[in-house]
Amino acid sequence: MTWGNQNTEAEAHEQLSYAFDAGLNFLDTAEMYPVPPVKETQGRTDQYIGSWLKTGRIKREDVVIATKISGYSVLQTYLRNPPETTRITKAQIKASVDASLKRLGVDHVDLLQIHWPDRYVTLFGASSYDVAKEREVDISFEEQLRGLDDVVKAGKVRYVGVSNETSYGVSEFAWAAKTLGLPKIQTIQNCYHLLYRTGYETNLAETCRRHDVSLLAFSPLAGGALTGKYLNGDAPKNARFNLFPGYMERYYQTQAKTATQEYVELAKKHGLTPTQLALAWCRSRWFVRSTIIGATSLPQLKENLDAFSVELSPEVIEGISQVYKKYRDPNAIA
What we know:
Layout lengths: L8 H13 L4 E3 L15 H10 L10 E6 L20 H15 L4 E6 L26 H13 L3 E7 L3 H14 L4 E5 L8 H4 L1 H8 L3 E4 L22 H4 L10 H16 L4 H11 L3 E4 L6 H10 L6 H13 L8
């Protein structure tokens, strides 16, 4: 999601070639990328992926392409033509998929995910559900699934999933799919990392297990915070938190930084890098089916990939548990 903003097309191609040469086969994008989202750059990530696919470095059938349709937003009206509030309606699902396929230069995507719910939910560190923020009209789960069913039947999408979703949403989608004979939600792409565990590990873990929905964990490094590079004020000027003041600010609050410092010290104690600790731990969780990484430089990408060959010892896992007991939700925003 940095390609087209922090990264050039050539840099995106370099990362893609390296990653797939290393054995990766899954690629996740979204109609709103790059981030932070603005009208002028919207869609560039897809375009860079599309131009790389045209080079023939890899066969289309050897890459699993996932994309996402944006949920409710009065800010990103430019995603639609003519502009309108983004919703998960049948018409907008079709329009989103058609535009994504055109940018990517492919005839289908393997996984289409609802980027965030059409209804109001707590997102991105918000700590409690606020009834006052509920909207009068939500697109029903049935209509959303029927819209997804349309693009599946048209051969434009193979499977469907959700992102930034709750136990309630997963259960409603599962029930509607089962009772109405509509596409089953296969995946959930939610934030999951050492600084944010309770959002998934409690009832969502059970809900997804019961409904056979696989977690695609995003932001396993907490936007780069868990590398430790922001702790001492010496992060590069082009690092995201420095480039975009206020971006993911929940990860550099006092308690989050204190927890990160302890994870960094734990990693060093056992001869690991902070990146190895965070990514190897995420991969080791029983409910994680894929860990989605991102990078703005090739050295970062190499370090991320190398971390997946690390197996954490019982002593390290116990050390992580001890830190977690002290900082259960350090990035919560009141």
